[in-house]
Specification:
The complex is a heterodimer. By secondary structure, chain A is α/β, with parallel strands linked by helices. Chain A is built from 17 helices and 14 strands. Chain A folds into two domains: 147 residues, Periplasmic binding protein-like II (D-Maltodextrin-Binding Protein, domain 2); 197 residues, Periplasmic binding protein-like II (D-Maltodextrin-Binding Protein, domain 2), CATH 3.40.190. Classes of the chains: A alpha/beta, B mainly alpha. The interface between A and B is large, with 52 and 44 residues.
Amino acid sequence: MKKYAALLLLIAGTTAACGVDGGAQDTAPSARGPIKIWLSNNKEEVAWGTAMAEAWNKAHADQKITVEEIPAGKTSEEVISAAITAGNAPCLVFNTAPAAVPQFQKQGGLVPLSDFADGASYIEARTGQAATQYKSPDGKYYQLPWKSNPVMIFYNKEVFKKAGIDSENPPLSTYEEFLATSRKLVSSGAAEAAIYPAPSGEFFQSWFDFYPLFAAETDGKQLVEGGKAQFDSPEGHRVAAFWKTLYDEKLAPKEKYNGDAFADGKAAMSIVGPWAVAVYGEKIDWGVAPLPTSTGKPAASVKTFSDAKNVAMYSACRNRATAWDVLKFATSKEQDGALLEATGQMPLRQNLPATYGDYFAKNPDYVTFADQAARTVEVPNVPNSITIWQTFRDAYSSAVIFGTTPPAEAFKAARDKIDALARQA
Amino acid sequence: MMAVASARRRLASLAGPQPVGLALIAPYAVYVAAVFAYPFGFAVWMSFHDYFFAAPGARVDRPFVGVGNYVAALTDPAVRRAFLNVGVFLLINVPLTVVLAMGLAVALNRAIHARTFLRVAFYVPYVTASVAVVGVWLFLFSEGGLVNRLLGPLAPEPSWLVNEALAMPLIAVFVAWKQLGFFILLYLAGLQNVPRELYEAAAVDGATRWRRFRSVTVPALRPATLLVVVLATITGANLFTEPYLLTGGGGPNGASASPVLLMYQRGIEQGLPGMAAAIGVLLVIMVIALSWLSRRLLEVR
């Protein structure tokens, strides 16, 4: 018994010592000097970022940028969150997920960009009206909207031909058409699956099945607006019923595929952003179509999920004046053009097709995506953002993918939970 | 004078008759304090607060919430489901591990041919990274995988990994298979301590092979069995990799989610370490209770 008493005492002692924070560190927002930045480990983005840093370093010998890839982890967000807690986050991360911003902000990990004299005006001048989606509830910008990957329907023309479907203008615009096409694709044996979104339970998977179609069906509603969940609506239920039909009729498999189902020819269609052009471009004879809606809205008015990645400045940064200058340099018209050239991803900039006319003339494959980039919907910038997405995903899995709960019941329960989560500041 | 003497006596009684011993255990004591006691104490503290990870120097409010996190955890159907899941897991995994490891260890102890090969064969899955072995099992048990092809029309519908009734049992079998090598080793060590005379005496009494196994081997291996049961319970309660990778995040529909997977989701992904810590403390209590029960049932008195 004595042994346990000693252990308890030890625990009590350590417990009492916890919960004390270090003193506030006061970093001068006007300081200049060397800074460190993180890039995603996407090959093309690393090439762009390295070239960008070299160009900057040539002109600023006393304020050099050190470029690193985000250290490996299960997700980038986890690594960044750990770095915030440890106090060793870099100045800028060129891969900050908008869904993670509320949490990073709560952790005290982000520098409000609006606090720079030209902060808000620079962001709004570059991105235009769409920038407001990235504002935090306190009215400040904690992220610079950087680039988007507006998702659309990618399809394999050869598979469509094999199934006897028009491969130039496939009937995919209404739910009816999309389902009929899917049935044909599978019953003809042209593909095992019509479409194969990841059916697994990670919180972010809904961004590539439910959410884009929800954005299209509602003309641009976010999952949560004005502190209220929006998906338990006739539109949300139509989207859910559409996916449920695909799963019930085995046009979309319920088991996770290990690999790339579209690249392997298992699935005839996929929901992807413009990054796909570079990835599948050579291997697959592909076509791109707007997302389906119940009534078949005209392509020019269909909205979608942006799948944006942004840049944020982290509070561990000492030389914040340099970091802000680098942020503006890296998102200048010239560097945005270089990014587009290198990755095919769309800078979150106004009038994209007009600004880079030459590029789109040379690369017509990207024009559809550039056009779509003007009509995107972001994840809501609300407290408990990740918990909200996980709650939604769990309800969706149960109601739509596995069909164990009636959708009406599952969505209602998720709505109540999410309304409560969005209220907590 | 008296006070000094009594203080010295108290010090001496605290240090014990061999004061050097204190220095010798110090490194381990420090290790346990730093790697186990401190983090555990911290977790307990966290579980009573609205805690979240914050940047150094950030001014944040982490109020004391009493048992709020525990109430939140216990009223969350996903958490209750996860504890139920891990219960199902242990119910299948632990007995299976004991039976298979003991049986194979006894067979291996007798085997003359290819003994080294067999030992290595049983041990390989244990030392191979989970991620790699999971890949092999995905190949075996996915919808169009080898097992379903062999079963043909007998293949379960829905398939193994997306079947709510089969996902967790499959994981239990997977983990039992993966760790078998280690537990066989424990039993092999135990077998070396069984006196030969007991077998001889039993043989003289006319005991059959099965009778000798039941009346000599099994009781003699009791201490090893206790160790195996307790270790298998502890590793089982810490289940994470398999539901994370094999069933795509605790799927289907949370049917294979484990408490540790939920701790990861809540604590790391969703920024609710307070609730995650509460789940962790509940898990520790559960493991201690189960270990105590195993000891009561299995220990040789």
